[in-house]
From TrEMBL:
GO MF annotations, alphabetized: glycosyltransferase activity
The protein, known as: Glycosyltransferase involved in cell wall bisynthesis
Domain of life, source organism: Bacteria
Keyword annotations from UniProtKB, A to Z: Transferase
DUF1972 domain: residues covered: 9-179
InterPro entries the UniProt entry points to: DUF1972, Glyco_trans_1
A Pfam family the protein falls into: DUF1972
Entry-linked SUPFAM superfamilies: UDP-Glycosyltransferase/glycogen phosphorylase
Signal peptide: none
Record domain Glycosyl transferase family: where: 196-349
PANTHER family per the UniProt record, alphabetical: BLL6006 PROTEIN, GLYCOSYLTRANSFERASE WBBK-RELATED
Length: 374
């Protein structure tokens, strides 16, 4: 009688947990984890204990382990992964999958225990303004350690692969971030903010300097546009930079804070005249993929990452890092409504196969199976 194939066991850690959908990594774990379960993989996700008032062991077939952390702004995420890694190494999981390059050093633990590992290292964290000084040095060092200790480095864009080859002399597998396309979204939810379809531009993202909301706001307010600029997002802590932005007085400017209702967010994306993307560091950006999936006309900061995502201008226009460049782009967008309409009509075509969650899952499964069989 043929032996039954052993069920693959994968542990996932480094984000807030499941089904806690807040940021890009959490979304990836949700989309990837649920699909892996459907493919008969045993998926274990390490949840940040303090964020979950209820702690069921299994949710939608995914095993949830609730590990503690030292609760402080700079230590929470790292200590949570440290405790999760120790737990996983003493368990019977076949493969450990970690997200976030900050967790690079913990690959040493799995190496000692001879557990196969993969890490998704994401963006250029050491260049982000919020990690000045010691924080920046740590992220650069941690990213380098990831290339030494983990069996497989995963990047989400060809440009990030090039960066890792150049800086750390290490090749990585490129598996993009996925997105879900959605058409004909009702505009009713945007009335909550007294907005009209195509009557506003949109920014979505954390209010941090490297997303350049200040630059976009300054450039937009310099223009003669009579549309609004809607800023969705905030920071989860008191921050002088974010507060100074929110104090700007102009009737065309609207700060919504976090929008957690998926239908409200879908409506905001779907009915904007143009979507501004000022993110400067990082590979495949989830907010940009959402904008493509909802059919937005995209106006993006000119970076190699944004060029790659928008196929070198096929699915959007670019601006340089100057307020006047934003002003000119707003005026161009309003002078050419037909071209903006065309960008909206073809945006979803930008979600090529590599951004399809089912395809993304297949790619990850192949990596996990190869690691388990080593």
């Amino acid at each position: 009688m043929a032996a039954t194939k052993k069920k693959l066991k994968v542990a996932i850690m480094g984000a807030k947990g499941y089904p806690y959908v807040y940021g890009g990594y959490d979304t990836m774990i949700k989309e990837l984890g649920e699909r892996l379960v459907q493919k008969n993989v045993h998926v274990r996700v390490y949840n940040h204990r303090a964020l979950f008032s209820e702690k069921p062991r299994f949710v939608n077939g995914i095993e949830c382990i609730y590990t503690p952390a030292i609760e402080s702004k700079s230590l929470t995420q790292l200590t949570h992964t440290f405790f999760s890694m120790i737990h996983a190494c003493f368990s019977d999981v076949d493969v450990i999958f970690v997200v976030n390059s900050g967790n690079g050093p913990f690959g040493l633990i799995s190496r000692i225990f001879r557990k196969p590992t993969a890490i998704n290292v994401d963006g250029l964290e050491w260049l982000r303004p919020k990690w000045k000084g010691l924080g920046a040095k740590y992220f650069f060092w941690a990213s380098k350690m990831a290339t030494k200790f983990y069996d497989q480095i995963i990047n989400d864009s060809d440009e990030m692969r090039r960066v890792y080859l150049e800086l750390f002399d290490t090749d990585s597998k490129v598996i993009a971030y996925g997105a879900n396309s959605r058409e004909s979204v009702d505009q009713e939810p945007i009335r909550k903010w007294k907005l009209e379809s195509r009557g506003y531009y949109l920014i979505v993202g954390r209010l941090v300097p490297d997303n350049n909301a200040d630059l976009i706001i300054e450039g937009f307010l310099k223009s003669h546009s009579d549309k609004k600029l809607v800023v969705v997002g905030d920071v989860p802590f008191q921050d002088t930079w974010a507060s100074s932005l929110k104090k700007i007085q102009d009737s065309r400017l609207l700060f919504t804070g976090y929008v957690t209702d998926p239908n409200e967010l879908a409506a905001l994306y779907s009915h904007c005249y143009g979507y501004f993307h000022g993110h400067e560091f990082g590979g495949t950006n989830p907010a940009m993929l959402k904008a493509l999936g909802y059919g937005c006309a995209i106006l993006a900061l000119d970076t190699p990452f944004n060029q790659e995502m928008l196929q070198n201008g096929k699915h959007g226009w670019y601006f340089t890092k100057k307020a006047d460049a934003v002003k000119l782009l707003v005026e161009k967008a309003e002078a050419e409504p037909q071209v903006m309409g065309q960008l909206r009509n073809t945006a979803r075509q930008g979600l090529t196969q590599k951004y399809n969650w089912d395809y993304v899952t297949e790619q990850y499964l192949k990596v996990f199976e190869e690691l388990a069989n080593r």
